Amino acid sequence: MANVKIHYRRPPDRVAVYENELVHAAPDVTVTVMRATRLEKPVRVGQQVILENGAPVVWFTFPDADHDIGRFHTRAGVFTGIYANILTPVEFISPTEWRTTDLFLDIWIGNDDAARILDEDELADAVERGWIEPATAEAARASAARLVEAHRNGTWPPRVVYDWPLERLTGLNS
Fold first, then answer.
1. What angle do CA 74, 66, 166 make, to 5 degrees?
2. Does residue 174 belong to any structural domain of this protein?
3. Is the C or the N end of the chain the one with fewer CB within 10 Å?
4. How far apart (Å, rounded) are the C-alpha atoms in residues 53 and 43?
5. In a domain, 76, yes or no
6. 120 in a domain, yes or no?
7. Domain that holds residue 165
8. pLDDT band, very low/low/confident/very high, at 169 (cuts 50, 70, 90)
9. What is the pLDDT of residue 171?
10. Three-state DSSP state, 168
11. Helices 134-152 and 120-128, interaxial angle, to 10°?
12. pLDDT tens-digit profile of 75-97?
């Protein structure tokens, strides 16, 4: 399969380009995998490590959505939970090159199945520094709240996120 380059902007001026392996493309979702995440330090929620250097992530990108979703794992491939970035809708420059802007808020659904909004302090700081407009921040907060409520109602994340566990990718080229 092809690789996808994702230009991921983090205000004010940080841009990272991630290269993920494309594993499934449909009109309503694109599934990619990052086989070995490169991190300077582990990602934690509270005291729990939810993603570590070298760990795989299965990513779900939805056209016109204000978020993407990742299935997070340990380096050994043990599923730790579902992580969503609140962001601007992905701009598909081409089938293999995309662009989006992170809006600081994230949602985490761990093994306890509770959805929690993360990094509200980072969003407030970004507004205070003038990195994003207050209206954009309010839209990000509303999006995160809507997704948490949809999770409580059992309508989010979408079924496709559960249909693509890491084990499903074992037969694909490493």
1. 25
2. no
3. C
4. 9
5. yes
6. yes
7. 3-169
8. confident
9. 57
10. helix
11. 170
12. 999 999 999 999 999 999 999 99
